[in-house]
Fold:
Amino acid sequence: MGLAWGVAALTRPTALLLPAIVAAWAWQPLGLTLGGRARARQVGLILLGLAVVVGPWTLRNAVALRAFVPVTTGAGGAMMVANNPPAWDDPVARGGANSATYRAALAVEFRGLNEVQVDARAGARAWAFILSRSRDWPTVAMA
Structure:
């Protein structure tokens, strides 16, 4: 299962956190059939399989990008595409994506930055927007 999750994480980085979430969720039910050591071994094997698949790619990224990038850059850009005024304020588009803000930033604000810098700056900008609009969270979440 860890190897499969590793492959899933390479194709879709959001899968990287799922083993930890499932392990936390399954810890109690596993205890109904397995002892403490066997339960820890099961979770450890999942994490080991994930590390075996994702580890070489993370090392490759560290060498190529000179930064800690577990799977891919792009999370910051994806956050910025979904968390900007047009994506939140337009009731028709709410809960969707609006890439115009990100494309405009790429053309001006992010121009000349490398891939890692663009991702970090876009992520920071998205988080700043999210935190500044906390009163809108329930509406956006419902969308």
Q: What stands out?
A: The two ends are 33 Å apart (CA to CA).
